[in-house]
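Lay summary. Proteins are chains of building blocks that fold into shapes, and those shapes determine what they do. In this project we predict the shape from the chain. Here is one chain we studied, written as its sequence of building blocks.
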Amino acid sequence: MEYMTEPAANTQGRILCCQCGIPISPNPANMCVACLRAQVDITEGIPKQVNVHFCKQCERYLQPPGTWMQCALESRELLTLCLKKLKSPLTKVRLIDAGFIWTEPHSKRLKVKLTVQKEVISGTILQQVFVVDFVILSQMCDDCHRVEAKDYWKAVVQVRQKTPHKKTFYYLEQLILKHKLHQNTLRVKEIRDGLDFYYGSKQHAQKMVDFLQCTVPCKYKTSQRLISHDVHSNSYNYKNTFSVEIVPVCKDNLVCLPLRLAHSLGNISQICVCVRVTSTIHLIDPNSLQIAEIDGSTYWRYPFYSLCQPGQLEEFIVMDIDIVGDCNRVPGTGTISTRHTLAEVWVQKTSEMDTNRQYHCRTHLGHLLNYGDLVLGFDLVNSNLNDECVNKMNPQRVPDVVLIKKSYDRGRRQHRRNWKLKELDKDHEDTGTDDEKQYLEFLEDLEDDHLIRKNVNIYRDSSKIPVESDTDDDGAPRISLAEMLDDLHISDATGGEGADMID
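And here is the predicted shape, written in a compact code that computers can read:
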């Protein structure tokens, strides 16, 4: 401890301390430092030991009255939190400096070294350095307390899609990870027809619903259930439920549009193929390459359903193919796709190779197919289509076969796949479906369509050998290394072993 005085001339003499009589430089108090310290303690009223509450589950510190903060040890944020504990006593002095003194991380102690100044007797400025000991006490935060009590959620978002496969949910999961919408989620539960997202507040659930409306064509309903009511304070405790229903149409589905809707989309054919589902449903007419987009509100006014599911795809072999010129296209008033090529093909089922039965159709896959290629499609001739729109159509306008996508060797594609995706931490239940097969089909869809890949974070798999070429030996599309992100690990920064981190 020392005192500070105004600078004096070099010729200034020395005086005796009025208490102990030792020679000192003149100062307004006429006392030495030891006597002045014995007379005045400027740290009086400042506590030397303070309690800080810490939640071990989520590793956050309590900033009164009710805010929990994530702070690293010896960080600026933690120092600010400690000083706020001393805010009222420190108003009587002037804080000059503050900093941490190193302690063992497991000691449950934080030592902060403070330097303060205060004007004392006769205008003398006294400066003192002391240490405040902060004791870390364990206290469970409200969020963790609700989790442990099994009654922690205040709102749930129930996302449903009435389809036998999960392509849309796999795509939706990647969008949630990319935009970090899962950070406020307390729990994600996977059920047969969709996902349930649990939240600690209604605002976080509403944010997820707004995100879903901008991402996929859907509609939602809300409801609430009264949990408790305090008659004295007139406060209510509700649990809110948001029921979100996604349109039951997925990629590679064959649909039959209502006649009125088809006319409003530029006289597109009623039989269309769904090539993509984003915020709208992307359809293409395999007879004329005319494309159309249907948003959620339009779909619910004119609902339609899938005629055939991807599980009903059959394998055909191309026997003959002929590219169709512009003059032979069916006239229409809508937009024509420039990413596809119209062609007339003769195909034969691989299961009927011992017969001479062949099928003729038009397809939008003329830029991919060649003689002898395998292609997946729907056989409408031998199918029992129980759809109101199809029953009202002229039978001559219903094609015999609709080709959906080219077939590649799945085992080879999986073996040469050198990338991976992140997944949500979900509570799984036995849904009775072949999830692994559906997930592999979703990975193939990412490789086939670069427009979908733009909305997904794809990470390089360091355990696989990098492949420089963009195509397989059989011509199957691949994801180039330029489209992949490096997977980050804690060990990359600390040099030790750690878990994966999501970008």
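What the prediction tells us: The chain has four domains: 2-139, 143-246, 254-407, 414-494.
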